[in-house]
Design a protein that fits this description.
Blueprint (H helix, E strand, L loop, with lengths): L1 H17 L4 H9 L3 H9 L7 E6 L2 H17 L4 E6 L2 H7 L7 E4 L5 H11 L3 E5 L5 H9 L4 E6 L13 H7 L4 E4 L2 H9 L5 E3 L3 H12 L5 H7 L3 E8 L1 H14 L6 E7 L4 H14 L3 E3 L6 H6 L2 E3 L6 H4 L5 E4 L11 H5 L4 E3 L7 H9 L2 E3 L3 H13 L1 H18 L2 H8 L6
Parallel strand pairs: 1-2, 1-4, 2-3, 4-5, 5-6, 6-7, 8-9, 8-12, 9-11, 10-11, 12-13, 13-14
Length: about 425
Amino acid sequence: MWLYNLGIFLLGIAIKLMALVKPKAALWVKGRQNWQHQLTIQLKPHLEKSRIWVHCASLGEFEQGRPVLALLREKYPNACLVLSFFSPSGYEIQKHYTGVDVICYMPLDTAQQAQQFIKLLNPAMALFVRYEFWLNHLKILKQNAVPTYLISAVFRPYQPFFKWYGSIFRDALQSYTTIFVQDDSSAQLLHQLNYKRYKICGDTRIDRVIAMSSENQKDLTFLETFKGHNTLFIAGSTWEGDELLVIEAFKTCRKTLAHLKLMIAPHEVEDKKTVRLLKRLKASGLVYVRFSDHPTPEQLKRADVLVLNTIGYLGASYRLAEVVYIGGGFNGGIHSILEPIAFLKPVYFGSTYQKFNEAVQLLSCGGSKSVKNTQELSEALNQVLSQKPVYDQMMAGIQLFLRQNNGASFKITEALQPLNG
C-alpha cells in the first residue's frame, strides 16, 4: 500500500507542475482548492438527509451513470444525491447538472484526504462508475460499513487484478458490497479470483442512448434536404485513416448504388483539422458541401457528400441513415457505436475495437462488422444495402444486443441495499 500512496503523492506533484502550462491541469488544481469549505457549504441545506454519493471519473462515466442517477432520484426523493468527478472535463461540463443536489471534485486519494472527505460527506451509500479503484477512499468506506457498489464494470485479463503484482487491487474488490458487471466474461474473471458478489446487468449506457434517441429533437432540415429520396450513409467521428477508407468505398458503391449519399462528421471539426479531408474530397471528383458554409437547399440536393463540421448534430442525424460507419478503428480505438445502435442502424468500424465491450458484444450478436480495408467496407455496404436478408440479419443482431443490455440501470437500482436513515 505504501507504494500506491507514494504513487498518489507523486501524481499530485505532477499535476501541480503541469498546471503551470496545461489549462486542464490548472482546472484540476483550482477545483480542489478549499474543497472542504466548499463541500461544507453545499451540504449545509441537506444536513438532515441521507446522502448517496455517486463518483464518475469524467464525462463518459457520467453519461454511463446518468440513468442510474435518475432512478436513484425517483427511488429516494428525500435523499441528498452527491455527484463527484475526478477530471475537469466531466466537472466543468456538468457542474450545473440539476439531477443531483451537490456536485464536487473528489479530492486526491491520499489517506488523509480520503478520511476527511468521507467523514464530511458521511454517505449512506456509495456508487462508483465503471473503472474506479481509489484504494484509500474504498478502505475508509469499508471501515465505516458504507454499502459501496461498482456499476457497469468491465474486467479484462490485462488489468492489474489478474497480474502477479495486483494484490492490493484484488484486495480492493472486497470493499464493494456488489459489483455490477456488463458481461459474462467479466463475471468469469471475478469468479476466478473467488469474488462472488457480482451481478450481470448489462451496460447502463444503453438506457441512456435509448432515452436520448427519443428525446433528441434537433432540427435536421438540412440533412433531410441533402438526403432527399436517396440512401444515406453516415461516417461519424472519423479520423484521416477512416476518411480515406470511407471515400474510396463510397465511390465504389456508387457504381451499383447510384442513389447513395454520404455524410462525413470528422472527429475534429476545426477548419485547420479538416483541410486534408476537403482536399481528398476535391481530388475524388465528388461534389461536396460543408455545413459551416450554410449551403442552400439547391446545393445540398446537388451534393454527393455533406461534411458535418460542427458539434451537436451527429447523434440525432443517425436516425436518417440507412447504414453507419464509426471512426477511430485505425487510430487506437473506435468511438461510441451506441448512438446509431439506438436508432437500429447497421454499424461498421475499423480493426481496433477489442477494448470496447459494446463492439465485441455487438459483433457476436451479428449487428455490426469490422473492416480492414476499402474492399471489405465496399463489399459490406453493397451487401447490406442491396440484399434484404443481410440487412434483416443485422437488424436481428442489433435487437438481440439491445434486449441483452436494456434495463441495466433498473436492475442495478433494484439490487441496492435499502437506504438507511
